[in-house]
Write a structure and sequence with these properties.
The complex is a heterodimer. By secondary structure, chain A is mainly β. Chain A has no helices and eleven strands. In chain A, β7 and β8 form a beta hairpin. Chain B is mainly β. Helix content of chain B is 0%, strand content 53%. Chain B is built from no helices and eleven strands. In chain B, strands 2, 4, 5, 6, 9, 10 and 11 form a seven-stranded mixed β-sheet that branches. In chain B, strands 1-3-8-7 form a four-stranded antiparallel β-sheet, with no helix packed on it. In chain B, a hairpin with a 3-residue loop joins β4 and β5. The radius of gyration of chain B is 14 Å and the shape is globular. Chain B starts with a strand and ends with a strand. The chains are: A mainly beta, B mainly beta. Chains A and B meet through β4, β5 and β10 of A and β4, β5 and β10 of B.
Chain lengths: 110, 118
């Protein structure tokens, strides 16, 4: 099976940078995702890492280290609209059922 | 604008009643997931279909839940009988698994069905 750990809550200031960490254990690995979910809405895709390293997409970057079972999502130039939950999700080997962590609720304050 | 469509958006029912939730995946997607989300458990995977075939429903209470995909445009999740602990938001998501077994990386979620069982 898989186990995914991420902090449940974080607070950061508008304009700052925040890093949301995710650690995981899995018996097979095909990729790691990050999704954003605003309160009362569906999750939306942010990033997908298959290989080690940093993937940058605008203000958001995602890093993966497969040997360490570790990923982080980096959000720069925080905006109030970035207040949301950020979900780390695993795509394991085999039948590729995507499983999610419980999510990190980020609050951006002025 | 392709999107996953779920019905109903909201459902309030009494304990013991049957509940059926429906999902229309994005045309051309070959993979469909059903998730349940609560504050305490986050997103829990209930069932997973590939090319309409059920691949994994180990996360689903078998005695009361059932998931089917009668055709490529419809996935259903049924609860019979419903219980108060089933109150949650149920999400359907679809995606495309390419040749070679590697997913494109993105799941598209419907807006969810918010179920309240009294």
């Amino acid at each position: 099976g898989q186990n995914i750990d991420q902090p449940t809550e974080m607070t950061a200031t508008e304009g700052a940078i925040v890093q949301i960490n995710c650690t995981y254990q899995t018996s097979g690995f095909n990729g790691l995702f990050w999704y954003q979910q605003h309160a009362g809405e569906a999750p939306t895709f942010l990033s997908y890492n298959v290989l080690d390293g940093l993937e940058e997409k605008g203000r958001f970057s995602s890093f993966l280290s497969r040997s360490k079972g570790y990923s982080y999502l980096l959000l720069k130039e925080l905006q109030m609209k970035d207040s949301a939950s950020y979900l780390c999700a695993l795509l394991p080997g085999g039948y590729q059922k995507v499983t999610f962590g419980i999510g990190t609720k980020l609050q951006v304050i002025p | 604008d392709a999107r996953v469509t779920q019905t109903p958006r909201h459902k309030v029912t009494e304990m013991g009643q049957e509940v059926t939730m429906r999902c229309q995946p994005i045309l051309g997607h070959n993979t469909v997931f059903w998730y349940r989300q609560t504050m305490m458990q986050g997103l829990e995977l209930l069932a997973y279909f590939r090319n309409r075939a059920p691949l994994d429903d180990s996360g689903m209470p078998k005695d009361r839940f059932s998931a089917e995909m009668p055709d490529a445009t419809l996935a259903t999740l049924k609860i019979q009988p419903s219980e108060p602990r089933d109150s949650a938001v149920y999400f359907c998501a679809s995606g495309l698994v390419q040749r070679g077994g590697l997913d494109t990386g993105e799941l598209f979620f419907g807006e969810g069905s918010r179920l309240t069982v009294l």
